[in-house]
């Protein structure tokens, strides 16, 4: 029997929505039922450009998408400042919510979104796509391998790209009225999520922002970083995110017996293969003229792009709720913990870079 398709509505025509809508069409258990924009002409052009099904309804407002009875779930790629309004409205209309990151401007806003999803019985998930790649599961296995990796001691992550002049003049991520978190929300989110993921989502005790973040003329952060510290086992993590450096998407995890390094964890260089380097039991050669063994290269193949796997998983969860299964609470919890760390970085910056305690 053919799998029941979850019908998506899309709120807005953001650039990121091109890839996610493609994923909806590639996923076997989802389809696109509607798209809405503030401009009907823009929605029509977006649907045509991305080869939406002829049955897709095109609207000149977001409200029309939420009022469509043939929409089961909505994808919200709107600017972060609009997330609270539209995610809450979607939940109140009993639409399941797939929300772009950063999910909110602060944890207070996110709590209102999650409360709306909870009270209306709808699934929530954020769009951190790399978590759905099979490479991520393989890396988690390595982290759990006491013989090869040992005890996790530190994680270091950097996500950067060089913004061009047009970006720095016109992009929503440098507009404080649209995405006031700037680089911290856009790509710092990935760094922080990677750090929490490696620590099994154990929150750090304190977060301390690095001094001298760089700002846009508008006051939005263009480049920043922070250190995260845990009470136990001397664990520490650092991250850097920037719109002012060459493209980088790295995670390095160091254990007592081994380590791994991923060069493209956010978006794989090849959407069909995710690679990483790993080594264990490394030693200096005699007289320190070298060391070994050399890191091995591991390549994890996938039949579907990571964004398609994300959509497929979200569709599976929604179908499960329809069948009487409970909502998956993992995703709201992970989102909230990520947002809490972002809030702590902001608080540290605003308070002369002092350590800020993180409390769930």
Automatic annotation (TrEMBL):
<feature type="domain" description="Gfo/Idh/MocA-like oxidoreductase N-terminal">
    <location>
        <begin position="6"/>
        <end position="125"/>
    </location>
</feature>
<comment type="similarity">
    <text>Belongs to the Gfo/Idh/MocA family.</text>
</comment>
<protein>
    <submittedName>
        <fullName>D-xylose 1-dehydrogenase (NADP(+))</fullName>
        <ecNumber>1.1.1.179</ecNumber>
    </submittedName>
</protein>
<keyword id="KW-0560">Oxidoreductase</keyword>
<dbReference type="Pfam" id="PF22725">
    <property type="entry name" value="GFO_IDH_MocA_C3"/>
</dbReference>
<dbReference type="GO" id="GO:0047837">
    <property type="term" value="F:D-xylose 1-dehydrogenase (NADP+) activity"/>
</dbReference>
<dbReference type="InterPro" id="IPR000683">
    <property type="entry name" value="Gfo/Idh/MocA-like_OxRdtase_N"/>
</dbReference>
<dbReference type="Pfam" id="PF01408">
    <property type="entry name" value="GFO_IDH_MocA"/>
</dbReference>
<feature type="domain" description="GFO/IDH/MocA-like oxidoreductase">
    <location>
        <begin position="138"/>
        <end position="260"/>
    </location>
</feature>
<dbReference type="InterPro" id="IPR036291">
    <property type="entry name" value="NAD(P)-bd_dom_sf"/>
</dbReference>
<dbReference type="GO" id="GO:0000166">
    <property type="term" value="F:nucleotide binding"/>
</dbReference>
<dbReference type="InterPro" id="IPR055170">
    <property type="entry name" value="GFO_IDH_MocA-like_dom"/>
</dbReference>
């Amino acid at each position: 029997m053919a799998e029941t398709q979850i019908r998506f509505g899309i709120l807005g025509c953001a650039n990121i929505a091109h890839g996610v809508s493609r994923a909806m069409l590639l996923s076997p258990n989802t389809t696109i039922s509607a798209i809405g924009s503030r401009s009907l002409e823009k929605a029509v052009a977006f649907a045509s450009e991305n080869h939406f099904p002829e049955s897709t309804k095109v609207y000149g407002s977001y409200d029309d998408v939420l009022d469509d009875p043939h929409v089961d779930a909505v994808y919200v790629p709107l600017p972060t400042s609009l997330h609270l309004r539209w995610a809450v409205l979607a939940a109140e209309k009993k639409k399941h919510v797939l929300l772009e990151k950063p999910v909110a401007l602060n944890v207070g806003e996110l709590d209102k979104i999650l409360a709306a999803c909870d009270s209306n019985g709808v699934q929530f998930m954020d769009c951190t796509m790399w978590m759905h790649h099979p490479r991520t599961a393989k890396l988690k296995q390595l982290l759990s391998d006491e013989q090869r990796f040992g005890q996790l001691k530190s994680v270091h992550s950097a996500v950067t790209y060089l913004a061009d002049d047009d970006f720095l003049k016109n992009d929503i991520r440098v507009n404080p009225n649209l995405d006031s978190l700037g680089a911290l929300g856009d790509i710092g989110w990935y760094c922080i999520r990677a750090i929490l993921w490696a620590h099994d989502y154990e929150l750090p005790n304190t977060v301390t922002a690095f001094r001298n973040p760089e700002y846009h003329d508008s006051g939005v952060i263009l480049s920043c970083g922070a250190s995260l510290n845990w009470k136990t086992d001397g664990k520490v993590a650092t991250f850097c995110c920037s719109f002012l450096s060459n493209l980088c998407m790295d995670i390095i995890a160091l254990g007592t017996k081994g380590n791994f390094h991923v060069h493209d964890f956010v978006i794989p260089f090849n959407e069909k293969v995710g690679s990483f380097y790993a080594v264990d039991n490394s030693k200096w050669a005699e007289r320190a003229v070298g060391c070994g063994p050399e890191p091995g290269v591991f390549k994890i193949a996938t039949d579907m792009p990571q964004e398609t796997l994300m959509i497929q998983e979200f569709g599976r969860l929604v179908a499960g709720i329809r069948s009487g299964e409970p909502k998956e609470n993992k995703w709201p919890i992970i989102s909230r913990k990520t947002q809490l760390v972002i809030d702590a970085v902001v608080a540290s910056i605003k308070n002369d870079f002092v350590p800020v305690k993180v409390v769930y």
